[in-house]
Amino acid sequence: MSNKRSSSLKAKIVIISGPSGCGKTTLHKALLVNPLLKGKLVKSISATTRHKRPGERQGRDYLFLNAKVFEERIRKGYFLEWEKVFDQYYGTPKTQALNLLKKGINVLLCIDVKGARTVAEEFPQALKIFIKAPSMKVLEARLKARGSESQESLALRLKVAREELKEAKSYDHVIVNADLKKALGSLQKIVCQELL
Known about the structure:
- The chain has helices at about 5, 25-30, 65-75, 95-100, 115-120, 135-145, 150-165, 180-195, and strands spanning about 15, 40-45, 45-50, 65, 80-85, 90-95, 105-110, 125-130, 175.
- The protein is an alpha/beta fold.
- Strands 2-7-1-8-9 form a 5-stranded parallel sheet, sandwiched between helices. A 4-stranded mixed sheet has the order 4-3-6-5.
- A hairpin with a 2-residue loop joins strand 5 (about 80-85) and strand 6 (about 90-95).
- Helix 6 (about 135-145) runs antiparallel to helix 7.
């Protein structure tokens, strides 16, 4: 899709990015239940090869695929963007997002900074919001509290987080998630101003 064609769409892509442990999943889920945005903002369900976490459901939280199927879909051009993050694939199915945009429904993508860059190249009018923890110390504590990270995995996530934080300046808005209620208030205000 050319930039010219993407700019003719009535709806917008809203991108939320941030390091693991910054709270972006909690924030985007809370954003989606905002009554003002009901029917106006829909989350694009990402595909991934990572294992389900407790409470996650196929087709609601992610499209869980095995690596062979994911790689086949990459070759067929199935994804708007895709990345390999922490040895697992993540991607945004193209058709689902484009169909929603054509219907005038804004699409929410919760993706990493590389994926955000790819999408923003094709959709320059996308609204990009970066979520970050108040400090690396807080981020590390949140990741440890998950109880799902090995020492190696934790070290890698923190290294990647430092790299991702450098990208924050290329976003339209940066929200520091020190207090979840305040961070959600800021996020809702930004998104409602842009979309309503």
